[in-house]
Amino acid sequence: MKLLNYTYLIPAMAIAVLLSACGGSNSKEKTTDTENNRSSYTEFSASPATEVSVGEETQLLMEELKERGDYVNSRDFPSLINASIVHEEMGADNYLVIDIRSAAEFRVGHIAGALNIDFRDLPTFFESGIKPFEYERIILVSSDGQDAAYTTGLLRLMGYGNVYAMRWGMSSWNKEYAEKGWYAGVSSGYGSELTTDITPAPAALNMPDPNTGMLTGETIASARFGLLFAEGLENVLIGADEVFADPSQFYIINYERRDKYESGHIPGAVRYKPGAMLGFVEEMATIPADKTTVVYCGTGHNSAFVTAYLRLFGYDARTLEFGNNGFMYDRMVNERSTLSWHPFSSEDFYDYETVD
Fold first, then answer.
1. pLDDT at 234
2. How many distinct helices (H) and strands (E) make up the chain?
3. Which CATH class is domain 71-185?
4. How far apart are the C-alpha atoms of 319 and 147, rounded to whole Å?
5. What pLDDT, in 10s, does the model give residues 284-303?
6. In angstroms, rounded to a whole number, what is the distance separating the alpha carbons of residues 96 and 230?
7. Which of 56, 81, 94, 199 is least enclosed by beta carbons within 10 angstroms?
8. What is the three-class DSSP state of 251?
9. Is 35 a residue whose pLDDT tops 80?
10. d(CA 134, CA 216)
11. What are the helix (H) ranges across 98-232?
């Protein structure tokens, strides 16, 4: 298969960033200037220029997604909606709620008017079960919001620009769901095992090849989406216990602000700046294609969207369940005012009724 080669002069970029960071005397301004630079500081090291080889299918897929609007670098990414808006619009003809939980969970209680559609059946449902663009919003609901975020990421990449994931899932609907959902998932069990050591990204080498055998970006994308929906949701989430048992067996991506990363992160985690990784070959090519990648953020919602994009390109990516809430909850509460953490709390759920 034809390879497309790119050469990136990392040392020259490193010097440019260094000069920018040294300009001026105000430390706050320095931080802002560096953050506005597209590339994360973890990628800049005194290494020789790296030639990145990208397979033709990978390049065609990337170009196809950019032609569809480059969703992952748009203002709509990630596409989350609060339960209060969902509740306000219940019953409106141009709003549709799709609950992707199991049929058993749905029967116990769900949002009035919601349809229960299995994750694997969603492509067919969107193609022939409804006319998607007749709705102003289509809201996906799952137990904790992370499955819905991953699914919404895929559907948005497919071109359905009116799909949203309900933040926090059913845990935001009322206290009963919150207690058996997010409150049951938050933990401070690994807060003492975090590190402030900065781990640089490895040299950019390559990206996975989809190997679909298709010849156009559109047909490659169609084949990849079909495969991901057929695989289901079983291997999308990963728990903190499994990751902390041996972080070295994973490639861990911290998808957060720099100050949050520097305050303490999972050992070995590499920080990638939000808005400056997805769709950029020189960034994505630093992610090892032969290792399971774990992506995490504060709540697991944003990382679920990132996971959808990486899996589309063939990475074995997982999103860390509950994000930082799942392993350093007490620290998030204590540092909420200084680092703008979002620990799940009573402020995040309502008192809305369900039907069965």
1. 95
2. 16, 12
3. alpha beta
4. 10
5. 999 999 999 999 999 999 99
6. 23
7. 94
8. strand
9. no
10. 29
11. 103-108, 122-124, 146-158, 175-180, 182-185, 217-231
H/E element, 165: strand 163-166
| Residue in the block written with tokens 């509950």 | 322
Q: Given a cut of 80, is residue 263 above it in pLDDT?
A: yes
Q: Which residues contact 283 (CB under 8 A, 6 or more apart)?
A: 39, 40, 43, 204, 272, 276, 277
Determine contact, residues 301/326, Cβ cutoff 8 Å. Answer: no
Chain centroid to CA 345: 22
CB neighbour list of residue 192: distance below 8 Å, 6 or more residues apart? none
Q: Where are the domains of the chain?
A: 71-185
Residue 293 belongs to what H/E stretch?
strand 293-296
- Looking at residue 52, its pLDDT comes to 83
- In angstroms, what CA-CA distances link 27 with 30, 32, 206? 5, 9, 36
What pLDDT score does 53 carry? 79
Is there a contact between 216 and 61 (Cβ–Cβ < 8 Å)? no
Neighbours of 28 (CB within 10 A): 8
Two structure tokens written together for 191: 């807060």
CA 345, CA 26: separation in Å to the nearest integer? 36
How many angstroms separate the CA atoms of 200 and 55, rounded? 25
What is the spatial distance between Cα 261 and Cα 105, in angstroms, rounded to a whole number?
36
What the block records as the tokens of 255 is: 């998808």
Query: Residues with Cβ < 8 Å from 130, sequence gap 6 or more?
Result: 96
Q: Specify the pLDDT at position 175.
A: 98
Nearest to 144 by CA among 183, 118, 107, 106: 183
Q: Provide the phi-psi class of 291: left if phi over 0, else alpha when psi is between -120 and 50, else beta.
A: beta
Given a cut of 70, whether residue 48 has pLDDT beyond it is: no
Q: Give the pairing type, strands 50-55 and 3-8.
A: antiparallel
